[in-house]
TrEMBL record, chains A, B, C, D, E, F:
GO MF assignments: peroxiredoxin activity
SUPFAM superfamilies per record: AhpD-like
PANTHER family for this protein: 4-CARBOXYMUCONOLACTONE DECARBOXYLASE FAMILY PROTEIN (PTHR33570), CARBOXYMUCONOLACTONE DECARBOXYLASE-LIKE DOMAIN-CONTAINING PROTEIN (PTHR33570:SF2)
InterPro entries: 4CMD/NDH-1_regulator, AhpD-like, CMD-like
Residues annotated as signal peptide: none
Protein name, per record: Carboxymuconolactone decarboxylase
Ranges for domain Carboxymuconolactone decarboxylase-like: 35-114
Pfam families, A to Z: CMD
Amino acid sequence: MSRDPVNYNKGIEVLNEMVGAPGLQAIDAFQKFYPDFADFLVSFGFGEIYSRETLDYKQRELITLTALITQGAFEQMTFHLNAALNVGLTPKEIVELVIHCAAYVGFPKACSAMTHVMNVFEQRGITAI
Amino acid sequence: MSRDPVNYNKGIEVLNEMVGAPGLQAIDAFQKFYPDFADFLVSFGFGEIYSRETLDYKQRELITLTALITQGAFEQMTFHLNAALNVGLTPKEIVELVIHCAAYVGFPKACSAMTHVMNVFEQRGITAI
Amino acid sequence: MSRDPVNYNKGIEVLNEMVGAPGLQAIDAFQKFYPDFADFLVSFGFGEIYSRETLDYKQRELITLTALITQGAFEQMTFHLNAALNVGLTPKEIVELVIHCAAYVGFPKACSAMTHVMNVFEQRGITAI
Amino acid sequence: MSRDPVNYNKGIEVLNEMVGAPGLQAIDAFQKFYPDFADFLVSFGFGEIYSRETLDYKQRELITLTALITQGAFEQMTFHLNAALNVGLTPKEIVELVIHCAAYVGFPKACSAMTHVMNVFEQRGITAI
Amino acid sequence: MSRDPVNYNKGIEVLNEMVGAPGLQAIDAFQKFYPDFADFLVSFGFGEIYSRETLDYKQRELITLTALITQGAFEQMTFHLNAALNVGLTPKEIVELVIHCAAYVGFPKACSAMTHVMNVFEQRGITAI
Amino acid sequence: MSRDPVNYNKGIEVLNEMVGAPGLQAIDAFQKFYPDFADFLVSFGFGEIYSRETLDYKQRELITLTALITQGAFEQMTFHLNAALNVGLTPKEIVELVIHCAAYVGFPKACSAMTHVMNVFEQRGITAI
């Protein structure tokens, strides 16, 4: 039982909208392993932050993707690339974000990011051109 | 004389729109010191990247600000906070970006970023609430 | 009024124990600027995290200090160095943490960290030897 | 023959206590490839640093794990997670460190770290709850 | 057709000298996916930067390898290790760079880097001793 | 009395060659504060690493400067910029290193680095053009 049921439920809603059932599996694994961690992740990371006003999901995914690329935290890249597409960022917008990062984060991390983008787009049968 | 006059001029245009004359002074200092560096910065960093289609200036400033915060590259924060406001991101949108980073980059860097935001807003006599 | 009064109050308690009134001034500045940010910082960053069981304040400050040094987030270094001393880490333990970081984070960031340690110790009139 | 036999031997002792024979295999590979590198790693990284007084192995593993997570240096995560458990950090303490990092390093790197924790715990047949 | 054919061709020349046909395959993949990204990478990252005077290819690979190791951008490590060897850095020079990074970037990233070095050297049937 | 007098003395020699008396003051401050830290810094960071064969001081400063820029560890930038010039890297070589980093680390950190370069060159009354 979450220590913050309202935001936990908001978080599950956000996750459903952003990634649907496949994405909830990752959370499930954390939930079984150590519920408090899944609790924080879902209620704070998604429930509280993503459901705030002022910035919509598309803007938030621009921010999250940039944060991941800059940190080199590519393990969450696939999750958020799918989320970004699902909430309405176009393939072109995502690729252009990576190009922007080539200048503002450097070409190495942009190349790593682009490879992840290519994999996700291939899985989804979409192109950016 | 730039090695790429078309994009150099685009870059100066972009800089004028984004920060106006005060911001061009930083570029000036680089220009006097080592023209090639200013050349790359203006023609590639601003001319080529910022004038690309698909993502507008506001989206690009969301990306650049996030990249700066995540890298801890706070020396360029003031420049881009002013740019962000000038191109139409609202004070609230900027603050909410920092709050988003608290979860996706961690509270330490978000706190550093928020301090810079507070300074710039104070200089410009604006509030975020 | 906090969106999470229980954890907000826990956070204020933690902050009082860790840094006392001087430290609360930084939070105050955030509070006046954008209450939601101070709210998250106090209730999540300090209230929820620091008051969790299993790891005590001294262990948590070992973790936070290491995270700050590794990120190069030195703007929060003074705050947490004071907190570390206040919760019972000895001057020697703090210096030895920095030496450990020399090997595991590299000498440059360890040197930056040590300079901050020296400043705080000087302000408090303590030595590590 | 090490350039610093005393600390080299201390380092081998530390490694034996921390990870035992399996862990020494990684060092062995470096030793065969370029002895000086293994020499520095064993004598300085483990011999000199880990055997210093003031901080015990458990505190040092809190620091090292935090440094790895913050840097995103996950290739050494498995080694140090095993070391942490072997020197007496409890499964719960390790998981709580990762939760602490969610706030102080951000959720992305905490998620990556937690995945590594789950893998190591599974291999060792332990749980954190 | 590149937006900057002169530097694009310079970039292809540089790539041929540095990595030959195998390395051009990675660029090819980017080219098919989103030509503008390959364009920037080849014409700016390799054409403009690598063909500049003052620093030769060997010095530039010292810089690039260090940047990759420090960022933990190991996905490009293999490419640049091969490039470094091809442009004349000796195996010993490359290994000594990693040892230098052990002190200036920390042992964790140096260990990750050394593993990549070992793999590339093994593929090429060379040793550093 | 150093725990490693041979390498400590090598380190002092290296420091004298690289920065002379002014630079030794920083080490002095560490020495007074906590001798073991100065000991490690001088004997390992400078004595053991910088006096190794295969890479000369100029190559090592290319590596160290790149590591500092990439980490954003600008507090040691002035020290190493002076060292780089003293050991024979030309002003142009140093500026070109920063330009190389614009592509491989990103423009933000390159801009921060260039500002430090400009300050040191101004203090020394030299130009890069």
